[in-house]
Design a protein that fits this description.
11 helices, 37% helix, 255 residues, two-stranded antiparallel ribbon, Cathepsin B, Chain A, elongated, 6-stranded antiparallel β-sheet, 2 domains, alpha+beta
């Protein structure tokens, strides 16, 4: 499971009204900074250093990637990320994202490998025109950091609806970051927990969260149940317990 990136809103009062000179005039971060704000989230996440939307918006405007009353150019993301030593490429110009399309399958595959994506959304739930968002995981929902919204349905998108409204994708290589904290399945010395009782004894700090996630259906196991009908074959390592607790606190699984 990928880690949830740092989240910034382009509408944050600290910078939403900041206007920066760009091609054809100027642009405010709140009005047209979704691309640079999305980039700032991932740059800070992957470098571990503060990177505010003001920094990326200034860079984008200075280098000619923002046009007044239009927004951020498609060519912006690769050089912006490369400026921080992060690999980024546009996935494809294809807009065929229906169920079974290779683009849709590739996005999900790469998310599971540890990549993040920036997606350009067309008119629909996410925007009335064009809007860039961060996509960080897919597990029955498409997990999103939306620089313009905190609405649940815009952060936890229905996959069919999401892909029907997505236009283009840029991948950001976060494999080293996302895979570093994952448990090594081949490591026989990794302690694993299969029941709530085992977790309660060895990792009591995770018991309440895991019980809640079982009730929500986030954790299902492969079929074996205990006497109370709960999964008895969860196969969770301590690293995975910590990840589940962190994600729950971050609101990944909803309220």
């Amino acid at each position: 499971m990928n880690k949830k990136p740092v989240s910034y809103l382009q509408t944050d009062a600290r910078w939403k009204n900041v206007r920066i000179k760009c091609n054809g005039g100027d642009m405010s971060i709140g009005g047209g900074g979704c691309g640079p704000t999305s980039a700032a989230m991932l740059i800070e996440t992957l470098t571990g250093k503060t990177c505010l939307p003001t920094e990326t918006m200034n860079w984008a405007c200075k280098h000619g990637y923002v046009t007044a009353n239009q927004g951020t150019d498609y060519a912006y993301f690769k050089p912006q990320f490369n400026n921080y030593g992060i690999a980024c490429e546009m996935l494809t110009w294809s807009t065929c994202l229906s169920a079974g399309s290779w683009v849709r399958d590739k996005v999900v595959e790469m998310l599971r490998e540890g990549y993040y994506f920036i997606a350009l959304m067309k008119k629909g739930l996410w925007t009335n025109g064009g809007h860039y968002i961060v996509v960080w995981w897919a597990d029955g929902k498409i997990r999103i950091n939306d620089p313009a919204s905190t609405r649940y349905e815009r952060l936890n998108g229905d996959p069919d609806l999401f892909f029907s409204q997505a236009k283009y994708f840029w991948w950001v290589d976060a494999r080293a970051y996302n895979n570093a904290a994952k448990p090594t399945e081949e490591d026989e010395d990794v302690k694993r927990y299969n029941t709530i009782a085992e977790i309660s004894d060895a990792a009591p700090w995770a018991t309440e969260t895991i019980a809640k996630l079982i009730e929500k259906g986030v954790i299902k196991g492969s079929g074996q149940k205990d006497t109370q009908g709960r999964p008895a074959d969860m196969n969770l390592s301590e690293d995975m317990l910590r990840m589940l607790v962190w994600n729950d606190r971050a609101g990944v699984y909803g309220k």
